[in-house]
Each structure stands twice: as structure tokens, then as C-alpha cells.
Design brief:
eight-stranded mixed beta sheet; alpha/beta; 17% strand; 10 helices
Length: 316
């Protein structure tokens, strides 16, 4: 997740802009009468953690990080791409330049579905140069990858077209995702009916935060957690600091999940979610200790399953 924080003073105006530019929320794209969506499969947390182990190994072999323009980033992208290619996705690597270095986005399309109604799920794959970036953002990248692989294993036939993405240079200011959205034609941009963002979902002292942007996407996530008996809070720490901003700023409905970065967990939050009050949600945020030891398995499991649930529900 990018360091700088934007304010929330224009939140209401942004929601209004989304409604005007996208023709309403994602709910408007659904027919009034529809068959119930198929249930998403449970994502084995062991599978998500196996991807994190691979990303950790890549970082260790490449100077201890997976940052933009470094060998560790490209090796991370190659790992994800190979898994998707083997699973039957159509993958595209998009190149851009930032800070004098070549960056890469990875886009993966699942065959089928109405290509005039696209549901996207994405995460940034790069980390900072200070460490391997396993929670930020190996966690989101691994969960999105495992969700995509679950689509393949299930032979899922969604009504809407599914697209997954891994962004480069998020840590430099959402560079990769902004490049992607701005280079879409207006017609292709309008086809994206929802973008789901997953940036830091396995924080060691976790909270359960849901983006309060598009109401229908927000409700999909909140309903899932309500079913688990978990109270959520609106996501505020990362507002405007991750790749959903690139889509939101172009009028595309967005939503997502977050488990917390360097903000401090309050006593009320600890009473609600467990963990330690007075300590950061992720004390290793943007640090060398953001390794595979810096992951809360339960948060990773719950958020990964919530990601798959939303992909299934919103694409049906």
C-alpha cells in the first residue's frame, strides 16, 4: 500500500461521480429477477500460504525485495503468470515506465461470460525495497491468484466476464493500475461493472475493514462477514492509497477488503476482533520483517474466502 494518505472530504462527491459516470452502482447491471448465485468454493488457506512461500523465496533470491524495477518483481510476475497460463487463463503482460525503470501489469481473462459486463479483482504485486512485502501485498496477490485458480478448478461459467489483475508500481503511487485504466478506450472502461481490490488482508494484528464505496459491492462483503458473526468497519486508513483509486477516479464502481497497516488498534477494536490494543495492525508495515512470519492465518483465510465469495456473487 502506498504511503501517502488522501482525505475523505470528497467521498460523497466521488460516489455521486461513480453513479453518473458508470450509470449507477453494480446492482443496476443486474436484472430485477435472477437465479441465486452458485456458492463459491472454500479457498484452502494452505494454498494461499504456499503462494506466499513462493513470493518469499523469490524475494530472498533477489536482494530481499520484490520492488518495482527489481528482479524480484519480475520473478513474482512470472510465477503468477505461469500458474494462470497452466489453468487456462488468457494472460497479458502490460509494460510501462516509472522512475526510469520498466514496470509490468499482469492481466488474466477467464474465457466466457458477457464481455460487455466485466467484473475485475486485483491487487498490487510489488513491494517496497525495504523488505519482501509478504503482507503488503503478497497477501492480496496470493488470495487473488488462488481465487482465479479456484475459478479454473470449478470450471466456473459466470454470467459476467471475469478478469484478474496484478499491478506494478503501486508503491510509487498506483502507477500500474492508473496506466491500465487510462489506456482503456472509453467503451472498454464502461464495460467494467465493478473492481474489487485486495491490499493487505493478512495483517498479524488484524482488523476487518470493508471499503465503503459502491453500495452493492460493500453489501456483498458485509453480508459475508455477518454470516461468520464478524463485525466489520468501514475502511478509512487506506482510502485513496491503493489501486481501487485508479478505477474510482474514472467512475468505475469499486470495493475491497483490508486488514490494517500502521494505524493503531483501539481497545474497542481489540474487544471486537481480538488481538492487541495499542499496537499497529501490522507492526512490520513497509519493513524488512514483512515476511511469511508476518501473517495472521485466520485473517488470511477469512478474507480469501470473502474475496472468492464476492467474485462468484457479483459475476453470476
Amino acid at each position: 500500500m502506498k504511503l501517502s494518505v488522501s482525505g475523505r472530504a470528497t467521498a460523497a462527491a466521488a460516489v455521486a461521480a461513480v453513479t453518473l459516470l458508470a450509470g449507477g452502482s453494480i446492482a443496476d447491471a443486474a436484472p430485477a429477477s435472477r437465479t441465486p448465485a452458485a456458492a463459491a468454493p472454500d479457498l484452502p488457506v494452505a494454498n494461499i500460504k504456499a503462494h506466499l512461500t513462493q513470493l518469499q523465496s523469490i524475494a530472498t533470491a533477489n536482494g530481499g525485495n520484490r520492488a518495482h524495477g527489481r528482479a524480484g518483481y519480475k520473478a513474482s510476475l512470472d510465477y503468477v503468470k505461469a500458474r494462470l497460463d497452466a489453468a487456462g487463463f488468457t494472460t497479458t503482460v502490460q509494460q510501462f515506465t516509472s522512475s526510469g525503470r520498466t514496470g509490468y501489469n499482469l492481466i488474466a481473462d477467464w474465457p466466457g461470460g458477457d464481455t460487455n459486463q466485466v467484473i475485475m479483482a486485483g491487487s498490487h504485486l510489488d513491494g517496497v525495497s525495504a523488505g519482501p512485502g509478504i503482507n503488503d501485498n503478497g497477501s492480496g496477490s496470493a488470495a487473488v491468484l488462488e481465487t482465479a485458480l479456484a475459478v479454473s478448478r470449478a470450471g466456473y461459467h459466470p454470467a459476467k466476464h471475469l478478469r484478474f489483475a496484478w499491478w506494478g508500481a503501486e508503491e510509487l503511487g498506483m502507477v500500474g493500475s492508473r496506466y491500465y485504466v487510462r489506456n482503456l478506450s472509453p467503451a472498454n472502461r464502461a464495460k467494467i461493472k465493478g473492481y474489487l481490490n485486495f491490499d493487505m488482508i493478512g495483517s498479524p494484528n488484524p482488523g476487518y475493514f470493508v471499503y465503503d464505496d459502491d453500495p452493492a459491492i460493500e453489501k456483498t462483503f458485509k453480508d459475508y462477514f455477518t454470516g461468520l458473526g464478524i463485525a466489520t468497519e468501514p475502511e478509512t486508513e487506506g482510502d485513496g492509497r491503493s489501486d481501487h483509486a485508479s478505477f474510482k477516479n474514472m467512475g468505475i464502481p469499486v470495493g475491497g477488503l483490508f486488514s490494517g497497516a500502521d494505524y493503531i488498534k483501539t481497545a474497542a477494536q481489540a474487544a471486537k476482533w481480538g488481538g492487541t490494543a495499542g499496537r499497529a495492525f501490522d507492526r512490520c508495515y513497509h519493513s524488512s520483517c514483512d515476511t511469511t512470519s508476518n501473517i495472521n492465518d485466520m485473517a488470511l483465510d477469512r478474507n480469501g474466502d470473502a474475496a472468492a465469495h464476492a467474485v462468484w456473487q457479483l459475476s453470476s
